[in-house]
């Protein structure tokens, strides 16, 4: 073999491939028996993609005559895929720590929302913030997420509501997509709340007739890139009818459907998502049995958000039932001013303790299945040859420590490699 390679990670105690056969997602038993190699090494090529992964002896023989730009001795450590955060709201101005105190004193999420706080509070501040200011805090948050092991993150707009601010947010996301090492899946979430002075129907019409055509034009001119369309389908926000209208129009302009549903009230959002061919539905604390069945059949992934149920003391989504019925379960941090958590290892920990997922299931949900929820599992979410060189190295001989340790002990994650680069 001739020509040099970018990076050699050698002699790891464990390399958690997650999957090894090009599976686009894992369900059922496959989530409980992840592909793990003992005493293994991994090679990243100059193109930033995984060139080889296998037993240390085999890789040593195969690459004996090859030069590497960089080598890391991984003895006593584990290599895992970069974590994928399938749901975040990271672009905003306006701190809401005061609302945490209100919630601890007994106010519900909707009490605060209806009193003009919550999303509305963040919208007011985000509308006033400059693009530069938004970029700078967003960049910092992405670096925190990357430090915590996330290498692909879904990022939503949705604190603008008016066209001008929604586009400002999408430009900020686009700039990060182009400038930073972390990979981004961008989501237009103009239907995150109903703007003051509008009815839900008027807001939905504004999105369908004004926002989406403009978005299409900007995407066609490659000024921005948008992957997904989102709606907060909830009682008192967007009902099923408006949600359908917005999502259908989004799909018609080429966006993947990925929306908030069945969170605080049963809305039949899961049934709607499955019918419309949604890639993913988030939250689902109040999903119906029929909704779960429809999602399993329709290969519509469930993005569960353990931080939200925890922060708001909601009933937990029925992760076990979804897993048993073959739903593609993914995880997200839901990072936003209501759930201020950057760390997918904390999210996995909460999913295990509060939603009764096993550690293998949680890792599959935070890697290959989260990548599937974003339509990126052909390039992300597992350590397979040809995929992007996104991975983490933890300073522990057993990979489960990534989930077992909690409370932000980030020294455990010793290296983060994104697009083949040690960051
Ligand atoms: O996913 N539920 C709607 N959206 C967010 C909360 C956003 C906010 O409170 O600012 C969520 O939890
Ligand atoms: Fe959300």
TrEMBL record:
GO biological process, one term: L-histidine catabolic process to glutamate and formamide
Coiled-coil region(s): none
Enzyme class: hydrolase
Its EC number(s): 3.5.2.7
Gene Ontology CC: one annotated term: cytoplasm
Essential cofactor(s): Fe(3+)
Keyword Ribonucleoprotein in record: no
Span of domain Amidohydrolase-related: 268-423
GO MF annotations in UniProt: imidazolonepropionase activity; metal ion binding
Residues making up the signal peptide according to the UniProt record: none
Family according to the record: Belongs to the metallo-dependent hydrolases superfamily. HutI family.
Protein name: Probable imidazolonepropionase
Organism annotation: Vombatus ursinus (Common wombat)
Gene this protein is translated from: AMDHD1
